């Protein structure tokens, strides 16, 4: 037992100091992360007036587990679908900020005579803002629902995935110890290859397993299963040369797409809090007051660089993406800190032994300073943005507004762009699946069958059979059918379309040839290739059916969380056979807008509506005059038969949509009036409402702004209109 005593004593000390710090900082309404850092400093070897940790090795192990669990939890809150939805605004802001701060951080590091590797890590560390600190500050200041906060959250989502990618690239640079551009390109391709492969495989397999064994799972079993999947992916990531943190994050993001995601996140939270506390406390242990005193100037310089650099670069990025001036300034000032990811990246440098010991405590000190300043930066961002707007020359303000209006007016997506995107989405994932299967076959199937009679033929045949649906889809599956048909009517487009089809077919033939060449000599492989293509063409219909079964299964798993959300029901609440079930009022439902009194749901179906959830608001026991709106989540109480009848009632009142129908995308756009056809006409005469299926909500005439203008107002050249309407129709109006 003696060898366990330091571990137990050290863990007890860490948790005791962490608990005291949490209570104190909760009382002071300060970020808990800062409390953990101070607790670590008190429990570390650099503070003599408090019991100290004796075995740092065991603490480092706990801290590494803490990083893994933290990244797994971050993945559970992350979603690749969210990443797709944040759009170009957040992406442009993020990349502008990260590139600027990486360059600035590297330059400052070199200016302070730091080593090249220290400077590279410093640049990356200073480029990532703190999700934890920002979200907590938003919540405390009550600004989470404001528009700029939505922009900030979008930036944080993109930052999370970029930070993971940069960690992998930093590890590559550190291991190779040189900056070969070709090596970095290969590392990026390798990373993307495994990310896509793991995501596709994970979504196809893991939700299915969780659904199959759901009746057997208790909370305890689900927690153990989730953590086992996390550590399995950690081992897999390490085996192919990536950081354990990447594996944990990927598994978290895969589980985030399952129906059990919220439950798993709830179960993992105590584990995350425990190991997260150990990690942040271990970070605080590295704070050496003597070192910080000796390097007070770098700490102050880097704190100023972080606050100003993050604010200015994010503001510029937001302006570049088309955000108005005030929104851009508020976004930039909110992102002016570093936090948990910076610690993880600094830990990576120490683990790889490529950064000096001084970098870590300086980063912690800078994080502590910027954590304190963040709430004030957010709080004073509004008055500061108004001050800047007033002080800027009117000409500059006008140019920014015009750029914002033109940047937000999304161009009509061309048919060619749609086709190319569809081809890439089809070809890239399928090629990755096929290449991965060929590599696995050569490493595992070939050694098993090589010594048997006709073993190579059996191995090649088995691999081809498994890959045949994917090879068919790569060659012949039609994508962007409507756009391709339109382009085929244009003579000049037929050649490029034929070339795209030929490339797909040749790629399939290449993959078949590559596989056969592994199992056979070149001559036999050639004849086998011809035979395979002939058989492949004969069974197209069956391959078509098989592939669509696989694709449908994948898409069902991918969207299962959203599908089940509206169908989720809760357990019985009373001794009788009634129970509570949740439904969502569809956007296409024709009961939307009607009062409960008019609908007479209780009288007709015997159903009682217990609550209506509308965004962040929940209306308990709604009265008869309460209306139902699209997107409302309603909780109803009834028997199984009554609930089933209510579901049919909702389905019957849902307006059926043609699958080809494209829903209008309603947006608010600024449009500068250049079209002479509208000059001299009133808003009513211009028929802008009919042309855009929208409404003119504002107009600026010679610097004077009018909200909700009358329809009789005459339009003049250079007027700026604010119109709410269909995105495509507004875009067409701009380009007429």
Automatic annotation (TrEMBL):
What keywords sit in the KW lines?
A: Ion transport, Membrane, Potassium, Potassium transport, Transmembrane, Transmembrane helix, Transport
Biological source species: Flavobacterium restrictum
GO cellular component, alphabetical, reads: membrane
> Domain named RCK C-terminal: which ranges?
568-652, 654-736
State which residue ranges cross the membrane.
6-25, 32-49, 61-80, 87-108, 120-138, 150-175, 181-210, 222-242, 292-320, 332-352, 358-382, 423-446, 452-476, 497-518, 524-539
Q: How does it sit in the membrane?
A: Multi-pass membrane protein
Give the PROSITE patterns listed for this entry. Answer: RCK_C
Q: Does the keyword Membrane apply?
A: yes
Q: Which Gene Ontology molecular function entries are recorded, alphabetically?
A: antiporter activity; monoatomic cation transmembrane transporter activity
State the compartments where it is located: Membrane
Q: Which PANTHER family match?
A: SODIUM/HYDROGEN EXCHANGER FAMILY/TRKA DOMAIN PROTEIN, SODIUM_GLUTAMATE SYMPORTER
User: What is the name of this protein?
Assistant: Sodium:proton antiporter
Please report which protein family the annotation says this sequence is part of. Belongs to the monovalent cation:proton antiporter 2 (CPA2) transporter (TC 2.A.37) family.
In terms of domain of life, where is this protein from?
Bacteria
* Statement: the UniProt record of this protein carries the keyword Ion transport: yes
Picking any one GO biological process from the record gives:
potassium ion transport
């Amino acid at each position: 037992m003696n060898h366990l005593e330091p571990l137990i004593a050290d863990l007890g000390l860490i948790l005791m100091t962490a608990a005291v710090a949490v209570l104190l900082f909760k009382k002071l309404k300060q970020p808990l992360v800062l409390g953990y850092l101070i607790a670590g400093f008190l429990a570390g070897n650099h503070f003599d007036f408090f019991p100290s940790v004796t075995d740092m090795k065991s603490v480092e192990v706990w801290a590494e587990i803490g990083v893994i669990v933290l990244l797994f939890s971050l993945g559970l809150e992350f979603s690749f679908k969210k990443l797709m939805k944040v759009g170009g605004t957040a992406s442009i802001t993020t990349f502008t900020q990260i590139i600027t701060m990486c360059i600035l951080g590297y330059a400052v590091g070199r200016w302070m005579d730091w080593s090249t590797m220290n400077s590279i890590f410093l640049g990356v560390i200073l480029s990532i803002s703190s999700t934890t600190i920002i979200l907590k500050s938003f919540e405390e200041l009550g600004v989470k629902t404001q528009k700029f906060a939505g922009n900030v959250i979008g930036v944080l989502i993109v930052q999370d995935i970029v930070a993971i990618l940069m960690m992998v690239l930093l590890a590559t640079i550190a291991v190779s110890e040189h900056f070969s551009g070709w090596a970095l390109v290969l590392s990026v391709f390798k990373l993307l290859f495994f990310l896509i492969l793991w995501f596709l495989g994970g979504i196809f397999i893991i939700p299915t397993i969780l659904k199959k064994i759901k009746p057997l799972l208790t909370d305890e079993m689900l927690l153990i299963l989730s953590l086992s999947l996390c550590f399995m992916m950690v081992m897999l990531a390490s085996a192919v040369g990536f950081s354990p943190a990447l594996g944990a994050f990927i598994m978290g993001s895969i589980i985030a797409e399952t129906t059990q995601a919220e439950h798993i996140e709830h179960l993992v939270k105590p584990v995350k809090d425990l190991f997260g506390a150990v990690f942040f406390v271990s970070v605080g242990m590295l704070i050496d007051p003597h070192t910080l005193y000796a390097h007070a100037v770098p700490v102050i310089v880097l704190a100023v660089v972080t606050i100003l650099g993050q604010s200015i670069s994010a503001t510029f990025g937001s302006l570049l993406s088309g955000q108005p001036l005030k929104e851009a300034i508020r976004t930039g000032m909110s992102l002016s800190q570093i936090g948990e990811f910076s610690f993880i990246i600094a830990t990576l440098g120490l683990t790889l032994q490529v950064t000096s010991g001084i970098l870590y405590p300086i980063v912690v000190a800078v994080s502590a300073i910027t954590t304190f300043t963040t709430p004030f930066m957010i709080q004073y961002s509004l008055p500061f943005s108004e001050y800047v707007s007033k002080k800027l020359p009117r000409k500059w303000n006008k140019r920014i507004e015009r750029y914002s209006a033109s940047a937000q007016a999304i161009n009509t997506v061309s048919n060619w762009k749609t086709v190319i995107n569809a081809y890439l989405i089809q070809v890239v994932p399928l090629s990755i699946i096929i290449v991965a299967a060929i590599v696995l076959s050569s490493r595992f199937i070939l050694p098993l069958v090589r010594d048997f009679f006709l073993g190579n033929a059996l191995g090649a045949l088995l691999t081809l059979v498994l890959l045949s649906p994917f090879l068919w889809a790569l060659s012949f599956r039609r994508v962007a059918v409507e756009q391709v048909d339109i382009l085929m009517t244009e003579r000049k487009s037929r050649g490029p379309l034929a070339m795209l089809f030929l490339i797909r077919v040749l790629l399939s033939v290449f993959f078949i040839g590559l596989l056969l060449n592994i199992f056979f000599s070149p001559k036999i492989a050639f004849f086998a290739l011809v035979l395979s293509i002939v058989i492949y063409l004969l069974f197209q219909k069956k391959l078509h059916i098989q592939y669509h079964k696989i694709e449908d299964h994948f898409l069902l798993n991918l969207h299962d969380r959203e599908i089940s959300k509206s169908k989720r029901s809760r357990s019985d609440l009373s001794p009788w056979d009634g129970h509570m079930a949740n439904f969502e009022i569809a956007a296409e439902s024709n009961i939307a807008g009607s009062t409960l009194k008019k609908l007479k749901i209780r009288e007709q179906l015997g159903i009682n509506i217990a609550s209506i959830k509308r965004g962040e608001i929940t209306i308990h026991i709604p009265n008869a005059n309460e209306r139902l709106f699209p997107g409302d989540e309603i909780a109803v109480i009834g028997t199984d038969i009554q609930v089933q009848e209510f579901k049919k009632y909702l389905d019957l009142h849902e307006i059926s949509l043609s699958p080809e129908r494209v829903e209008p995308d309603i947006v608010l756009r600024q449009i500068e009036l250049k079209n002479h056809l509208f000059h001299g006409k009133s808003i009513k005469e211009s028929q802008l409402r009919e042309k855009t299926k929208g409404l003119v909500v504002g107009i600026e005439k010679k610097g004077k702004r009018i909200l909700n203008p009358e329809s009789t107002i005459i339009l003049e050249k250079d007027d700026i209109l604010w119109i709410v309407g269909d995105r495509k129709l507004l875009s067409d109006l701009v380009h007429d």
